């Protein structure tokens, strides 16, 4: 019975989209052009180099080398091999869905088990820093301080998701219980791992480069197709009134939680496509805190367009989609909470201490002592925080090491 209902839903959905495209051909064409431009101008040039480099890093054994070196950090913190550190760094630098692509590559190469891959993919799909600071902060909000707030909440929340998902299927953990080795012994082992992996590559250099480029382009073409498709779907749902119908339902929920109803349409748009949703939220007539919270939420959720891209990439392996989706829900919760916490110290107080924010005759003027104390805190507090977090990570590592 369930499969019959699923078949009916699929058939009705596709028929609805086909009829909507026929009724609104001009608008569908414009939406397709918009999605294609987004892919050509932003996604393709930003992701292609990372995809090619990731393929080469894996082929030449560099991932294995870094994995051996990062094993003492990644195992106790995220319960994944050290090679996951490469995925975490490149995934955050290049933007989604790069984390899924890199994780899929490691799984195909048998570097990760399925459970480890599912843990890793749940927190390594993050937004590109250029998108947060450039498109959203400068382009939409016209305020550089917004980028610092959104980026801090987004990336710290991703790390918290990884720390949470380390307990996913903990009884199936494959923690490395090797004997304790020193730094130089680990460095030697990492070099041997790199050399052994490179020797296993029997293809010539030109063939390896060609395979890396072809594999990357195939994945990016798949991503481009999803971007165009969801751009058209988002436009058609708005034209046919489906979006307004859903927004009327969500507005009731928003009112129950005293959230502004003006953000219902932008929120729905952001659920499907992040760029359009972020732009609409920044233009809404509501408080800045609410705007930042909703933008942070849709950045963490990734949007159905990116989730479909991730699902198609993971479908090439045995990695299940559900842990990734659970990670998105956790990311939304953490990111929204951190945005609310960081709003005053990273946005309001930075605005207070900007050169043009405190006039001489203002009642909020600080005396000389308070001014320099707050300046000192503003400059040194992030450094102290990083040192404290680093010390905590080292402490946790040695505590966990005692139990191995």
From TrEMBL:
<keyword id="KW-0472">Membrane</keyword>
<dbReference type="InterPro" id="IPR014226">
    <property type="entry name" value="Spore_IM_YlbJ"/>
</dbReference>
<feature type="transmembrane region" description="Helical">
    <location>
        <begin position="148"/>
        <end position="168"/>
    </location>
</feature>
<feature type="domain" description="Nucleoside transporter/FeoB GTPase Gate">
    <location>
        <begin position="43"/>
        <end position="138"/>
    </location>
</feature>
<feature type="transmembrane region" description="Helical">
    <location>
        <begin position="208"/>
        <end position="233"/>
    </location>
</feature>
<keyword id="KW-1133">Transmembrane helix</keyword>
<feature type="transmembrane region" description="Helical">
    <location>
        <begin position="7"/>
        <end position="24"/>
    </location>
</feature>
<dbReference type="Pfam" id="PF07670">
    <property type="entry name" value="Gate"/>
</dbReference>
<keyword id="KW-0812">Transmembrane</keyword>
<feature type="transmembrane region" description="Helical">
    <location>
        <begin position="245"/>
        <end position="272"/>
    </location>
</feature>
<feature type="transmembrane region" description="Helical">
    <location>
        <begin position="379"/>
        <end position="398"/>
    </location>
</feature>
<feature type="transmembrane region" description="Helical">
    <location>
        <begin position="120"/>
        <end position="141"/>
    </location>
</feature>
<feature type="transmembrane region" description="Helical">
    <location>
        <begin position="44"/>
        <end position="70"/>
    </location>
</feature>
<feature type="transmembrane region" description="Helical">
    <location>
        <begin position="292"/>
        <end position="314"/>
    </location>
</feature>
<protein>
    <submittedName>
        <fullName>Sporulation integral membrane protein YlbJ</fullName>
    </submittedName>
</protein>
<feature type="transmembrane region" description="Helical">
    <location>
        <begin position="77"/>
        <end position="100"/>
    </location>
</feature>
<feature type="transmembrane region" description="Helical">
    <location>
        <begin position="321"/>
        <end position="343"/>
    </location>
</feature>
<dbReference type="InterPro" id="IPR011642">
    <property type="entry name" value="Gate_dom"/>
</dbReference>
């Amino acid at each position: 019975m369930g499969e019959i209902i699923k078949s009916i839903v699929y058939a009705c959905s596709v028929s609805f989209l086909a009829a909507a495209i026929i009724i609104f051909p001009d608008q569908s064409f414009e939406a397709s052009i918009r999605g294609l431009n987004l892919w050509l101008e932003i996604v393709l040039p930003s992701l292609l180099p990372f995809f090619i480099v990731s393929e080469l890093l894996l082929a030449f054994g560099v991932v294995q080398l870094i994995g051996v070196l990062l094993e003492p950090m990644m195992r106790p913190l995220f319960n994944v091999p050290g090679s996951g550190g490469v995925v975490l760094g490149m995934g955050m630098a290049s933007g989604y869905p790069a984390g899924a692509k890199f994780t899929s590559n490691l799984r195909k190469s048998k570097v990760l088990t399925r459970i480890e891959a599912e843990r890793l993919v749940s927190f390594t799909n993050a937004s590109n820093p250029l998108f947060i600071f450039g498109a959203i902060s400068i382009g939409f909000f016209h305020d550089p301080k917004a980028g610092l707030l959104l980026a801090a909440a987004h990336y710290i929340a991703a790390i918290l998701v990884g720390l949470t998902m380390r307990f996913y299927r903990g009884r199936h953990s494959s923690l490395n219980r090797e004997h304790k080795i020193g730094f130089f012994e680990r460095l030697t082992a990492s070099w041997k791992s790199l050399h052994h992996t490179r020797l296993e590559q029997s293809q010539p250099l030109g063939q390896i480069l060609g395979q890396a480029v072809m594999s990357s382009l195939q994945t990016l073409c798949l991503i481009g197709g999803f971007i165009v498709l969801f751009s058209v779907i988002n436009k058609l749902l708005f034209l046919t009134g489906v979006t307004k119908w859903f927004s009327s339902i969500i507005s009731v929920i928003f009112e129950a939680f005293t959230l502004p109803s003006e953000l219902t349409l932008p929120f729905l748009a952001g659920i499907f496509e992040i760029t359009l949703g972020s732009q609409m939220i920044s233009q809404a007539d509501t408080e800045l805190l609410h705007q930042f919270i909703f933008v942070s939420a849709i950045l963490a959720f990734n949007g159905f367009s990116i989730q479909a891209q991730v699902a198609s990439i993971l479908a090439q392996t045995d990695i299940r989609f559900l842990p990734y989706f659970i990670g998105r829900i956790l990311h939304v919760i953490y990111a929204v909470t951190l945005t609310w916490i960081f709003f005053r110290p990273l946005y309001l107080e930075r605005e207070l201490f900007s050169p043009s924010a405190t006039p001489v005759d203002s009642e909020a003027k600080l005396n000389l002592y308070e001014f320099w104390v707050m300046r000192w805190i503003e400059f040194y507090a992030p450094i102290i925080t990083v040192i404290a977090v680093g010390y905590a990570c080292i402490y946790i590592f040695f505590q966990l090491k005692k139990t191995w």
